[in-house]
Write the structure tokens for this entry.
Amino acid sequence: MKNVTDSFLSLGHWPFAGSFGFFNTDILSTNLINLSVVLGVLIFFGKGVLSDLLDNRKQRIFNTIRNSEELRGGAIEQLEKARARLRKVEMEADQFRVNGYSEIEREKFNLINSIYKTLEQLENYKNETIQFEQQRTINQVRQRVFQQALQGALGTLNSCLNNELHLRTISANIGILGSIKEKTD
């Protein structure tokens, strides 16, 4: 500090080559002095302003960090809630999936049983229908054979019998029926 004051005191002893009385206008020799004066004035007057600016900036940075920490905490909390909901939904989805699979298996089993019952009923209907058709066909064949046999017998009888033989057969049959009637009386 002593050097700075000495330099101000020694200003009066400098030669005044190209200067205005008290001030030295030689730029090269006065540059250091001018610079130290400007810096001293800036430090003296600007120290409070600069300190206030830095304090304000520091406070804003701290506020931003605090807000960021609060937001981070809120985001972490929301993330944990979302993860918990996701786990819950996944468990419910797994439960629905398991229930759905068991329901599907049960429906599949019921459908298979129903199909087997239906197939058994159809098989029974088929067998009954076949039996009915066989019986009907047998009856038709019997009836036709009987009709053909009757027609053949009638044809043989008509060709073999004449009126006299026909009357004798009728009389014999009446006699047989009369004797049966007497026995029953």
Summary: Residues 30-133 form one domain. The chain has a mean pLDDT of 81. The helical segments are 2-9, 27-160, 163-184.
